[in-house]
């Protein structure tokens, strides 16, 4: 009997040991770090002054992110730190020395690079992505503003800075398409592609258009593009001179177009002028190239779709369509002429040569490379007016 119980007890002990032994080897939370001991960097800005990198870190208050009734409008919701260094990571390290907690870059959402630092963008991207904490999904922008001023710009209703253009750019693009916001992954991919001009969106500040009570509110807004070719910074393109780019973006979402005054048809008084406000909801570009000559000839076929949202004065449907097509064509041509003067392939025509006519592109590269010239782009626009609103046009 004793022998039998010993055998039974040994049989029960084996599975129990197999369960308890691994548990004994598990360590406790000895390296646990409280959330209050960390500062989560939401936005990182890099400048370059006197041959030294300047790093700016924006930290957003957690209470401002959560939707609580205790969050009162006007409460401070962001802090900005600044430090210098010989390298990018050296500047970030010096910033950590003055912080009251551990700076955590694992939740960084935005990288802002000042125009002065753009010639060193390769080093900035290398330093940012060499550390394991950073992510290629962060948005990246350029700016001509002081970064600390940009990080301290105003917000509406005391909301978090996460509602600003730099943190939530897709909402802005959906209501007024100018340039599609890029993640770091998308921008680096464009930088590395041959024959492509990489376009970095530029964030600026607008003053005087909004106010909080009687105090002016300075808010973020797109103000242009920074052009790169073969990883080299070329030039800043202001929005008023590069606005034609929006129509060739395949990701175009929406834009409100105010047409110029157009003459009425014979059915109306010849002196009567009309204008319309049209919502453009679709823009589909198709670019073809003819390589028979010494210089390539391009044709842009652009199909637009939209509807009338406002009408000032009598206009027929055909007059509205003609006014929209004429105005957009003028905008595209003006932007193309500006790009030709600056020798920048803003419409990415060189990509068509590289992808579809590689031998021809290589031949041009051997003779100094291809740059756009005036007279080499033909534009053909069609516009589908879906509806004209609840009221008759005439």
Structural commentary:
There is one protein chain. With 394 residues, the protein is α/β, with parallel strands linked by helices. The chain is built from eleven helices and 14 strands. It has two domains: 36-243, no CATH class; 255-385, GMP Synthetase, Chain A, domain 3 (2-Layer Sandwich). The protein has helices at residues 2-25, 62-65, 88-98, 121-130, 147-151, 169-175, 184-192, 239-242, 317-342, 349-356, 358-366, and strands spanning 38-49, 52-60, 78-85, 102-104, 110-114, 139-143, 197-212, 215-229, 232-238, 255-258, 262-263, 273-290, 297-312, 377-385. Strands 1, 2, 3, 4, 5 and 6 form a six-stranded mixed sheet that branches. It starts with a helix and ends in a 9-residue tail after the last strand.
């Amino acid at each position: 009997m004793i022998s039998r119980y010993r055998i039974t007890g040994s049989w029960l002990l084996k599975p129990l040991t197999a369960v308890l032994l691994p548990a004994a080897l598990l360590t406790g939370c000895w390296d646990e770090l409280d959330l209050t001991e960390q500062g989560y960097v939401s936005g990182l800005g890099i400048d370059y002054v006197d041959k030294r990198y300047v790093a700016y870190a924006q930290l957003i208050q957690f209470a401002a992110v959560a939707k609580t009734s205790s969050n009162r409008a006007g409460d401070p919701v962001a802090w900005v730190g600044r430090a210098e260094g010989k390298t990018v990571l050296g500047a970030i390290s010096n910033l950590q020395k003055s912080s009251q907690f551990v700076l955590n870059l694992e939740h960084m959402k935005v990288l802002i690079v000042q125009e002065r630092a753009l010639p060193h963008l390769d080093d900035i991207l290398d330093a940012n992505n060499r550390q394991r904490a950073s992510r290629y999904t962060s948005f990246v922008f350029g700016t001509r503003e002081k970064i600390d001023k940009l990080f301290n710009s105003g917000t509406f209703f005391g909301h978090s800075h996460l509602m600003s253009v730099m943190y939530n750019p897709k909402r802005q693009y959906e209501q007024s398409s100018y340039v599609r916001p890029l993640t770091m992954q998308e921008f680096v991919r464009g930088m590395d592609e041959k024959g492509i001009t990489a376009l970095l969106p530029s964030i600026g500040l607008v003053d005087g258009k909004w106010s909080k009570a009687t105090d002016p509110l300075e808010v973020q807004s797109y103000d242009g593009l920074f052009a790169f070719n073969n990883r080299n910074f070329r030039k800043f393109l202001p929005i008023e001179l590069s606005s034609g780019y929006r129509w060739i973006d395949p990701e175009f979402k929406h834009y409100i177009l105010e047409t110029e005054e157009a003459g009425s048809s014979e059915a109306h008084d010849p002196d009567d002028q009309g204008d319309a406000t049209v919502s453009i909801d679709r823009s589909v570009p198709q670019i073809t190239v003819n390589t028979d000559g010494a210089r390539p000839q391009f044709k842009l076929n652009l199909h637009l779709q939209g509807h009338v949202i406002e009408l000032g004065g009598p206009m027929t449907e055909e007059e509205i369509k003609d006014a929209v097509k004429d105005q957009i064509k003028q905008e595209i041509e003006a932007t193309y002429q500006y790009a030709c003067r600056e020798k920048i392939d803003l419409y990415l025509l060189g990509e068509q040569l590289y992808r579809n006519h590689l031998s021809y592109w290589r031949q041009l590269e051997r003779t100094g490379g291809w740059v756009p010239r005036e007279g080499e782009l033909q534009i053909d626009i069609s516009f589908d007016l879906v509806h004209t609103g609840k009221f008759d046009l005439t």
